[in-house]
C-alpha cells in the first residue's frame, strides 16, 4: 500500500509531516490538497512526499483528494519546507501562501438536526439556540454557527454532548472552483527597441545584471542609487532581456508605494503581460489573477510581498524595489518571513537573478554587499535630469533648530524659514509636500489640571484625537471613542492637545495661507475606497498646491513641479527603544527630501528638528548614505548587533499581567539553564522584559531576545509552547 507524507493545517512548529495511507483507487501526488483525519477532527493538508513503506502502524487513510490534482510544483514544496524550517512555522502555513485564493479553511463541520433524545439532554438555553438554527425541515447547520449561538457556557455543554455521542458532527470539504479561463491575450514582444540608459553607471549596472541573465545562472545584486537615479529603468531593461530569453519576472514593491505611477510604467513597457497582486484587490480579482498566472497568461507579476508566491515559472528575474522597507516582513501571522530572504532562496532555487534596489539600503544588506558576501554592489550615484540626459543636483536642504525657534519666541509648528518657503512656493504657482510621520490632530490628549493622559482601555498607549471623525483613536487597536467632556480622573473640563499629526498640520497651514488648496494623504485617507489613487492623481494634476502626509508621501512619488519639501518634525521615532530607530529616521528623511527638485527648476527642503546634531537627521537631510552607514555600522559593531549577530525574538501575551510575566520568567530560566548545560556561551539570553507598548488589545506582552552567531542552536534545546511567538530575524525588538 502506498503512503503519503502530509503537511496538516495544525499549529505544529517546524516542518513536521504526518503519514497517511492512500486508499485503493485514489490518485494522490505531491503538491495536491487532501482531507485527512487529525486527532478528533478532520483537517486540510498538502501532500509533500510519497513512499512505498512506513514503520508506523496503524496508519489512518486519507479521506479525500482534490480532483484538481497537484497545485504546487516541486520548487514550491521545497521553498515552503525551507521557510517552515528557517522561520519555525507550521509547514502547512508556508504552503498555504502558495495555494490559490480560497484554499484556506476548506474543511468545516456540520451538525445534523438533533433527535428528541438529544434535545431532551440539553439545557433550556442550548435547546432554544439549537431550535432557532433548525427552522422548518432544515437538516444540517454549520458547527461554527451553532457555537456562536450557544455562547461560552453552551459550547462547553456541546462538547460534553459530542463526547457522549448525543450530538454528532459530520465533515465537509468546500470545493475549489477555478474561474473560467479568459481568452488568451495575443503575445506581445517585450520591446523591440529599448531606450538607451543615460549614464555610465546605469550601463555598467545593467551590463552586470544582463550578463548573469544571459548565462542562466544565479546572481544577486544590490542596486544602490540615490533618489531619481534611474533604478526603475534598469529594472525595466533587465526584465525585457529576461523575457526575451524565455523566462519570466517578478517585481516586488512595498505595499505603501504600490501606486499607479509604479504599475503604469511596467504595463506600458510590457502591454498585456503584467499581472498586479496587492491587498486592495477584491477576492474575485485576486482569484482571477492567481489562476491566470497559473495558466501561463502573464510573464510579469508586480505586487507586494505576497506576490512572491504567485505560481509564476520559470522565473529568471526577481526585483525587490525599496528593499529596506519594513513592509517586506510578515509580522502578524505565521510564517513570519521576510520577502528579501525568501526571494534570495527562490532565486537560488531557480538559477535566477535577484536585484535589491534602494536609495537607503538596509544596513545589514549594504554590509553584505560591501564585503562581498554573495551580493554584488552596483552604484547609481547620479540623479538624472528630465529625459535622463544629464545629472541633476540633489535638493538643497536647510536644517532648522526648533530649540532656537522657541528661545527666540516663535512657538508655531512652522518655523520662520518654512513659513517663508511655503509662501514663496505657493505664490510662484509651484507645489510643496509637508511630511509629518503621525496621523491625526495631536499625539496625546492631557488634562491641564491633574496631568492625566487619556489612554486606550485595551492598549498601553495614549489616544490620538482625529478632528475629521471627532473621535479619540487608538493607533494600536483602532478602538474609538467620543472625546471626554471632563477628565476621568479629576473631573476637570480643561484638556490640551500635545504633539502633532497630519490633521493639525493641514488646519495650521490653512490658517497660515488662507485659500491655499491642500490635500492630505495618510492611512486614514488611504483606507477609503480608491482615495489613495485619487489623492495622488489630483496632486499630480496640480489640483492642490500642498500635499500633507505621513511616510506614504515619501515613497515613489514623482511630481516634477514640487519645488519644496518641508519635514515638520524629523524627530518622531528617533528615540524609540529599538536599535533600528536611527536607521528608519534616516531612511524616511532621505526618501521624503528626495521628492523635491525633480523638475527643471530644481528645489529645496526644510527639515525641522529638536536634534539638529543627530547623525541620522544631519546625514538624512543631506541624503548622504555613506556617512550614515559608517556611523551606524560602527555602533552596531560595538554593540554586537546585526549584521554582527543574529536575533530571534520570543514573545508571549496574556490577558493577565502577572501570568505573562511568570511565563516569560519561566522560559527565560529554561533558556539560561540549557545555555549552561550545552556550553552555548556565544548565545546571549536578553530578558525577559516587557514589550513596548506593554499592553495591546487587552493582552500584556513580554519577550525574550536571543542574540548570537546562531541563536537557533539554543532555541532548539527548549520546547516552546505553541502560544509563544517565534520571530526569526525580527525587524523590530519593541
Structure description:
The chain is of the alpha/beta class. The chain has 5 domains: 3-96, PriA, 3(prime) DNA-binding domain (GIY-YIG endonuclease, 3-Layer(aba) Sandwich); 110-170; 200-388, P-loop containing nucleotide triphosphate hydrolases (Rossmann fold); 393-442 and 499-637, P-loop containing nucleotide triphosphate hydrolases (Rossmann fold); 646-728, 2-Layer Sandwich (Alpha-Beta Plaits). The radius of gyration is 29 Å and the shape is globular.
Going by CATH, the architecture of the largest domain would be 3-Layer(aba) Sandwich
| Fraction of residues in β-strands | 15-25%
Shape: globular
Tally of DSSP helical segments: 21
Enumerate the spans where pLDDT stays under 50 for 5 or more consecutive residues: none
What is the fourth-level CATH superfamily of the largest domain? P-loop containing nucleotide triphosphate hydrolases
Distance between the termini: 52 Å
Amino acid at each position: 500500500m502506498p503512503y503519503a507524507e502530509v503537511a496538516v493545517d495544525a499549529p505544529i512548529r517546524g516542518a513536521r509531516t504526518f503519514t497517511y495511507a492512500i486508499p485503493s483507487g485514489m490518485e494522490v501526488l505531491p503538491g495536491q490538497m487532501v482531507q485527512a483525519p487529525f486527532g478528533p477532527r478532520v483537517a486540510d493538508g498538502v501532500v509533500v512526499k510519497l513512499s512505498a513503506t512506513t514503520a508506523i502502524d496503524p496508519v489512518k487513510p486519507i479521506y479525500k483528494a482534490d480532483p484538481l490534482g497537484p497545485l504546487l510544483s516541486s520548487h514550491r514544496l521545497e521553498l515552503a519546507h525551507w521557510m517552515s524550517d528557517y522561520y519555525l512555522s507550521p509547514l502547512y502555513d508556508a504552503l498555504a501562501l502558495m495555494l490559490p485564493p480560497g484554499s484556506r479553511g476548506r474543511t468545516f463541520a456540520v451538525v445534523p438536526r438533533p433527535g428528541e433524545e438529544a434535545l431532551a439532554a440539553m439545557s433550556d438555553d442550548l435547546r432554544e439556540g439549537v431550535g432557532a438554527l433548525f427552522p422548518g425541515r432544515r437538516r444540517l447547520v454549520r458547527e461554527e454557527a451553532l457555537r456562536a449561538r450557544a455562547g461560552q457556557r453552551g459550547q462547553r455543554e456541546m462538547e460534553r454532548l459530542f463526547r457522549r455521542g448525543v450530538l454528532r458532527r459530520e465533515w465537509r470539504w468546500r470545493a475549489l472552483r477555478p474561474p473560467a479561463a479568459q481568452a488568451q491575450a495575443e503575445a506581445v514582444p517585450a520591446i523591440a527597441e529599448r531606450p538607451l540608459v543615460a549614464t555610465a553607471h546605469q550601463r555598467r549596472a545593467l551590463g552586470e545584471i544582463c550578463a548573469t541573465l544571459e548565462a542562466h545562472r544565479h546572481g544577486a545584486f544590490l542596486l544602490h542609487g540615490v533618489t531619481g537615479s534611474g533604478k526603475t529603468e534598469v529594472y525595466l531593461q533587465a526584465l525585457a532581456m529576461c523575457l526575451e530569453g524565455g523566462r519570466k519576472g517578478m517585481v516586488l514593491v512595498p505595499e505603501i508605494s504600490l501606486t499607479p505611477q509604479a504599475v503604469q510604467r511596467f504595463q506600458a513597457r510590457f502591454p498585456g503581460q503584467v499581472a498586479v497582486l496587492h491587498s486592495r484587490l477584491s477576492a474575485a480579482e485576486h482569484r482571477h489573477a492567481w489562476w491566470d498566472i497559473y495558466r501561463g497568461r502573464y510573464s510579469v507579476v508586480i505586487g507586494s510581498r505576497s506576490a512572491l508566491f504567485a505560481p509564476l515559472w520559470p522565473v529568471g528575474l526577481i526585483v525587490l524595489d525599496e528593499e529596506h522597507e519594513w513592509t517586506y516582513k510578515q509580522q502578524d501571522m505565521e510564517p513570519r518571513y521576510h520577502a528579501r530572504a525568501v526571494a534570495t532562496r527562490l532565486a537560488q532555487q531557480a538559477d535566477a537573478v535577484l536585484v535589491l534596489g534602494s536609495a537607503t539600503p538596509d544596513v545589514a544588506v549594504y554590509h553584505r554587499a560591501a564585503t562581498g558576501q554573495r551580493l554584488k554592489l552596483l552604484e547609481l550615484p547620479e540623479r538624472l535630469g528630465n529625459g535622463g540626459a544629464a545629472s541633476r543636483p540633489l535638493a538643497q536642504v536647510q536644517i532648522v533648530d526648533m530649540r532656537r525657534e522657541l528661545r527666540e519666541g516663535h512657538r508655531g509648528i512652522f518655523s520662520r524659514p518654512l513659513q517663508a518657503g511655503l509662501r514663496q512656493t505657493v505664490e510662484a504657482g509651484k507645489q510643496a509636500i509637508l511630511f509629518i510621520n503621525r496621523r491625526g490632530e495631536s499625539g496625546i490628549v492631557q488634562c491641564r489640571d491633574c496631568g492625566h493622559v487619556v489612554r486606550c482601555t485595551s492598549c498601553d498607549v495614549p489616544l490620538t484625537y482625529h478632528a475629521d471623525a471627532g473621535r479619540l483613536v487608538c493607533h494600536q487597536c483602532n478602538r474609538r471613542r467620543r472625546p471626554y467632556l471632563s477628565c476621568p480622573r479629576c473631573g476637570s473640563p480643561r484638556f490640551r492637545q500635545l504633539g502633532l499629526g497630519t490633521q493639525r498640520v493641514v488646519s495650521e497651514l490653512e490658517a497660515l495661507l488662507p485659500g491655499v488648496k491642500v490635500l492630505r494623504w495618510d492611512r486614514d485617507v488611504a483606507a477609503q475606497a480608491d482615495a489613495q489613487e485619487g489623492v495622488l492623481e489630483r496632486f499630480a494634476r496640480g489640483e492642490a498646491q500642498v500635499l500633507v502626509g505621513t511616510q506614504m508621501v515619501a515613497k515613489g512619488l514623482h511630481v516634477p513641479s514640487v519645488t519644496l519639501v518641508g519635514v515638520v518634525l524629523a524627530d518622531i521615532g528617533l528615540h524609540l527603544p529599538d536599535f533600528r530607530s536611527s536607521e528608519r529616521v534616516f531612511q524616511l528623511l532621505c526618501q521624503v527630501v528626495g521628492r523635491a527638485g525633480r523638475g527643471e527648476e530644481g528645489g529645496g527642503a526644510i527639515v525641522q528638528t529638536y536634534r539638529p546634531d543627530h547623525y541620522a537627521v544631519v546625514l538624512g537631510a543631506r541624503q548622504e548614505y555613506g556617512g550614515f552607514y559608517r556611523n551606524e555600522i560602527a555602533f552596531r559593531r560595538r554593540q554586537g548587533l546585526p549584521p554582527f549577530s543574529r536575533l530571534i525574538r520570543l514573545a508571549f501575551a496574556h490577558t493577565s499581567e502577572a501570568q505573562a510575566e511568570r511565563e516569560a520568567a519561566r522560559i527565560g530560566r529554561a533558556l539560561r539553564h540549557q545555555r549552561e548545560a550545552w556550553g552555548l556561551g556565544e548565545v546571549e539570553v536578553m530578558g525577559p522584559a516587557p514589550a513596548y507598548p506593554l499592553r495591546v488589545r487587552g493582552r500584556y506582552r513580554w519577550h525574550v531576545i536571543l542574540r548570537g552567531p546562531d541563536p537557533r542552536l539554543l532555541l532548539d534545546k527548549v520546547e516552546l509552547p505553541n502560544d509563544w511567538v517565534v520571530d526569526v530575524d525580527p525587524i523590530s525588538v519593541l
